[in-house]
Design brief:
Layout (H helix, E strand, L loop, with lengths): L1 H12 L7 E3 L5 E3 L7 E7 L8 H12 L3 E7 L11 H12 L21
């Protein structure tokens, strides 16, 4: 049992955030190595959350600093079922309501047994 816990941990020690590739909301891939040299702000998002209006502020921040900062949204339904939509529904919601242009990952799990490795 201890071996099962230690081996993944040792593997992660040698990884950088820039070593990850994640599925994109639009069906492509987000290769974080493309953002080396920039700061990353990785944000868990949800469309039916009290913090949903943060999309507007995140978009302003991204637009102002996109030469040196990349914001990547990670929609998840792990907290009170606040992101029930499909990837296409989430994408449409973000663009239509908040004009989101920063990269958005496909819907992920950020807690539990199926947690996305980046988290």
């Amino acid at each position: 049992m201890l071996r099962l816990l230690i081996i993944p941990f040792l593997f992660m020690i040698h990884m950088s955030v820039y070593d990850f590739k994640v599925p994109a909301l639009n069906g492509g891939t987000i290769d974080l190595s493309a953002y080396k040299g920039k700061k990353l702000l990785i944000v868990n998002t949800a469309s039916k959350c009290g913090f949903t209006p943060q999309y507007a502020d995140l978009e302003k921040l991204y637009d102002k600093y996109k030469d040196k900062l990349v914001i990547i949204g990670f929609p998840a339904n792990d907290f009170g079922g606040q992101e029930p939509g499909t990837n296409p529904e989430i994408s449409e919601f973000c663009k239509k309501n908040y004009g989101v242009t920063f990269p958005m990952a496909a819907k992920v799990d950020v807690v539990g047994d199926n947690t996305t490795p980046l988290f």
